[in-house]
């Protein structure tokens, strides 16, 4: 197993420190490439390890607002899915495997009943019906760039980026050139046969920020 050194709050593997001047010599360098199987063997050290097209991303433990947002959205989504017998909501740490070199752990994902044949005891294979990422200081670039492009390419039906600072949700669908910015009510209807779920964002973000406004 390769060992990688990380800078504080870095999402990316660092190359080794530069050699002393007198040791410098012409040489080729390359960024290490990783597989899903390799990152599964990384230590359980409260960091989230993900790989996208062989590139390693490392995210530190999230903060209070992030965890509250995940909790509230999980509660709302799971209750809706159970009520209408549509599927289930799962939360990180849980692996979604797209390819041997692309495995991520979304904050939330929804697996519909029609997709359960791709759900195993260890992970989900392929594109979930819904993926939700709650951005934090250390993850906002990855969530909006690398993960967004991965989810678009893999045809994830809906991708929500929850921004607790701006108190809105960025909704992406395959083919979108820009997100729909939702600030008041987020409406989701995964199947035509069931009524839509409507999530009021103002009270949600009030819970997320409670006691933290200062």
Q: What features would you describe in this structure?
A:
The protein is α+β, with helices and mostly antiparallel strands and 214 residues long. It has a domain at 64-209: tt1808, chain A (Alpha-Beta Complex). 22% of the residues lie in helices and 27% in strands. The chain contains 5 helices and 13 strands. The strands form 4 sheets. Strands 3-6-8-9-10-11 form a 6-stranded mixed beta sheet, with helices on both faces. A 3-stranded mixed beta sheet has the order 5-4-7, with no helix packed on it. Strands 1-2 form a two-stranded antiparallel ribbon. Strand 9 and strand 10 (168-172) form a beta hairpin. Helix 2 packs across helix 5 (201-209). The longest helix is centred in the middle third of the chain and has 20 residues, at 64-83. The termini are far apart. Residues 1-28 have low confidence and may be disordered.
């Amino acid at each position: 197993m390769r060992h990688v050194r990380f800078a504080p709050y870095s999402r990316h593997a660092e190359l080794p420190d530069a050699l002393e001047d007198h040791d410098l010599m012409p040489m080729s360098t390359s960024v290490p490439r990783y597989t899903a199987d390799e990152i599964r063997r990384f230590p359980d050290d409260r960091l989230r390890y993900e790989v996208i097209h062989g590139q390693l991303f490392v995210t530190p433990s999230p903060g209070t607002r992030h965890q509250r947002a995940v909790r509230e959205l999980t509660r709302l989504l799971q209750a809706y899915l159970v009520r209408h017998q549509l599927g289930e909501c799962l939360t990180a740490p849980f692996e979604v495997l797209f390819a041997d070199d692309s495995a991520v752990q979304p904050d939330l994902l929804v697996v519909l009943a029609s997709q359960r044949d791709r759900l195993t005891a260890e992970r989900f294979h392929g594109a979930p019906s819904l993926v939700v990422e709650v951005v934090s200081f250390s993850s906002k670039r990855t969530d909006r760039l690398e993960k967004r492009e991965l989810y678009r390419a893999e045809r994830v039906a809906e991708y929500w980026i929850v921004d607790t600072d701006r108190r809105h949700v960025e909704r992406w669908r395959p083919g979108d050139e820009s997100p729909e910015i939702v600030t008041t009510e987020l409406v989701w209807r995964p199947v035509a046969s069931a009524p839509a779920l409507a999530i009021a964002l103002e009270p949600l973000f009030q819970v997320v920020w409670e006691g933290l406004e200062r």
